[in-house]
Amino acid sequence: VVNVGDDLVLHGLTICPDLDTITYTLAGLNNDELGWGLRGESWRVMQELEDLGGESWFRLGDRDLATHLYRSERLRQGATKTEVARELAAHFNLAVALLPVTDDPVATEFLTTEGRLTFQDYFVRRRHDIVVSAIEIVGAAEATLSASARAAIVNADRLVIAPSNPLISIDPILQVPGVRELIRERASDVIAVSPLINGEALKGPADRLMRELGYETSVLGVADFYEGLVGTWVIDEADRAHADDLRARGVSVEVTTTIMADPENARRLAKVITS
Amino acid sequence: VVNVGDDLVLHGLTICPDLDTITYTLAGLNNDELGWGLRGESWRVMQELEDLGGESWFRLGDRDLATHLYRSERLRQGATKTEVARELAAHFNLAVALLPVTDDPVATEFLTTEGRLTFQDYFVRRRHDIVVSAIEIVGAAEATLSASARAAIVNADRLVIAPSNPLISIDPILQVPGVRELIRERASDVIAVSPLINGEALKGPADRLMRELGYETSVLGVADFYEGLVGTWVIDEADRAHADDLRARGVSVEVTTTIMADPENARRLAKVITS
To answer: Can you tell me the distance from the alpha carbon of A4 to that of A18, in angstroms, rounded to the nearest whole number?
Structure first.
């Protein structure tokens, strides 16, 4: 069940960065050097666009662009984001279903010292280097949880909250009406992997944003944020000292290496989560 | 003053084939081998899109795509087609102003034996190989002649009607309210180059369409179509026999080689037109 709060329309194209990044990564096509986009990417269009004086701060590779052209045309034909995600997953031979939490428009926005910023303006253009006083998930309250995302949350053997940024990758999912309640009902089946290790995010602004928005930057702060939703916490060896504090809150705790430095480590972590 | 009846939205992108073709050609960047698009083009995005199962019948090269991304984003920012055309012309160092006849949406459509077809569906997908019973310039009657196109028509030293397809490249311009009247008032300053030579179009379906829609397929048929709008006709040596018939209608006639087989011939024709 994937966040769509990062989605944007740029150059007339509907771009779904979270869906695409997960799709490319699961397909083994992610660009390790860049940390985003596709392997073996080329930049012909972006180079020309830059020459034209167009908006080129959001880098779109030639291969990646095909995904956005495809999605944009399918949406215009009346397909939903859910249907397009299914088509792309089939094309890339993914074994799992990637479900946008909603087919309605949702936009994560940041109130900052320089005013309101869109997600990509904050994240890419400003490289998340600006003080945030509040995050708003515009449209979330009016959005409808998609039927397939609902069915997945209700019927899955267990629910895993990935070690993504709680405030900007997971919260836009939780804020869609119904999601938080459905997860709460199944809290004993919910396993969350802490996105903070020793108080820090491996990448991205999770620690900084939590601090700026008044959360403790530790596994305990993250646990506060997910209060009532999680049955089992998976934390890193580095945070072993917090295990008893967590257990005192009535949750199970697994301590392991949570850094997915390579596929082998990722596999090991997945085994802990699914065992 | 350029036709926008061919314009389309595809993959979320606003594409203006006539404006772009003229821009690329005047910039000396046209792809002679293909007969459309840009020189030195590559097809990375289109190849990927085809692999994805996307709509790939309308071929968009990587360099060309940058133009469409640029225009689409500028239009979304509130710019007009006229402004974007001016920006692109400046980028490509064009010495002339290319003016979309209107900033409003206009769509040339074809009534055929297989129903109503959009311009590109007729022209590109069906390769104009289908019987047409009528052409409709949807939106033309409600469109507003742009201020700069109006000024150009009113103030130009002379008006040249290019040897384009009268029915689908020139008529969508003439059907915008005001254009026909403004040109008629200046008919003595209007020079038209016949698009038919010996009853045939050099390329494209002009002759076939004229026949199907009941026009004589000759310079006389074309002259009938532009009745009252033209002061001087430029016809090819091959049509010298029609010169007196044309003159009998009260217009001047220049007979010359009108095939622009190479830049030298094009230059020579331009000299005849501007002398």
So the answer is: 7
